[in-house]
Amino acid sequence: MNKTEIIPSIIANNQKELDKIFDKIRISQTIHLDVMDGIYVPNKSLWFDFKLIRHDYEAHLMTRNPETFIRKYNSEIKTFIVHPEAIHNVDALIDFVHSIRCRIFLALKPSVSVSAIRRYLRKIDGVLIMTVQPGKYGAPFMRNMIGKIRQLRGNKKLIIEVDGSVNDKTIGLLKQSGANRFSVGSYIQKSKDVKKTIESLEK
Question: How far apart are CA 62 and CA 31, in angstroms?
């Protein structure tokens, strides 16, 4: 199985917010960017012409027409996480992302089942399971989403990432269910010592 990774996430509405949060969490090897267009989900985040400092990033695109964003930022971001129901042709987008030497994950929001992406599992690089409703700040943890992780873990090599209310109380259960990559937002942002918080989650 793939190694366990804790990935701090960023939600920002302007460059100043982005830079401030990045400075706090830049010790992490990878940073998760939550991109929201205000259409696919009700809120907006990183929906402006932002600039990134050289680092390893993944972008969770809670947007319509994610290909536009991917074309713009693929020289700086190497992993893109997209929602299949927001894409006209999933196969074509997977092929395009791989053609530009980037990775692509498919994301499952709570209302989308594993069966919706099963035919793509051999082509993609990973799956992100949302354990909250997308685009809603502080949304409650949805324990019943763990079933999706268990369904997918039959594939021992698959990267399974979880996004939503990941903290010291939920990460153990998520790990035991088969997840190996964790996007963590407010739990790390509110921490006074990011390094120790990440280390404690890894344990």
Answer: 16
